[in-house]
Write a structure and sequence with these properties.
Elements: E1 6-13, H1 18-28, E2 34-40, E3 45-50, H2 57-65, E4 70-73, H3 85-112, H4 116-120
Antiparallel strand pairs: 1-3, 1-4, 2-3
Length: about 120
C-alpha cells in the first residue's frame, strides 16, 4: 500500500534560533505520520511532510503549542493581528534603555569621582 505524503507549512511564533529547531525536532520527529521537517528561521517557517491519514495539521499545532511556541498555517499568517510598536520592537527598546542607563551610571560616577583611585578607596 502506498503512503500518501503531503507538505504543510506553518508560521511558528518563537522560532528564531537553532535551540527552538532542536526542540521542535525532538517533539515532532518521532510522531507517527510525520515524514520530514524543514525549517526557515528567517521567516519563522516550518514545513512538515506528513501522511494526512495518520496526523492532522491541528494535531501538529497542538504539539508545537506544547513546546511553548505557537503556530498557524502558513496561508493564515496574513490574518494574524497587527502588533503594536512596543510588541514588535520590545527587545531593541529594552536593550537601548539598558545601554543608556549603563552609560548614565558611568558618567555620573565619573562626575562625582573623577579620580580612578577614589573608586578603589585610596
Amino acid at each position: 500500500m502506498e503512503e500518501s505524503k503531503e507538505k504543510i507549512s506553518f508560521k511558528v511564533f518563537g522560532l528564531d534560533c537553532a535551540a527552538e529547531i532542536a526542540i521542535l525536532k525532538n517533539v515532532l520527529s518521532g510522531k507517527e505520520g510525520i515524514k520530514d521537517l524543514e525549517f526557515n528561521i528567517l521567516n519563522s517557517q516550518m514545513t512538515v511532510a506528513l501522511d494526512p491519514v495518520q496526523i492532522s495539521s491541528e494535531e501538529i499545532i497542538e504539539l508545537i503549542f506544547s513546546t511553548g511556541m505557537n503556530a498557524i498555517p502558513w496561508e493564515e499568517r496574513a490574518l494574524e493581528p497587527k502588533r503594536s510598536f512596543y510588541e514588535r520592537y520590545e527587545r531593541e527598546i529594552l536593550t537601548g534603555l539598558s545601554g543608556f542607563f549603563l552609560i548614565l551610571g558611568y558618567t555620573s560616577h565619573y562626575y562625582f569621582h573623577p579620580n580612578i583611585l577614589d573608586i578603589i578607596g585610596y
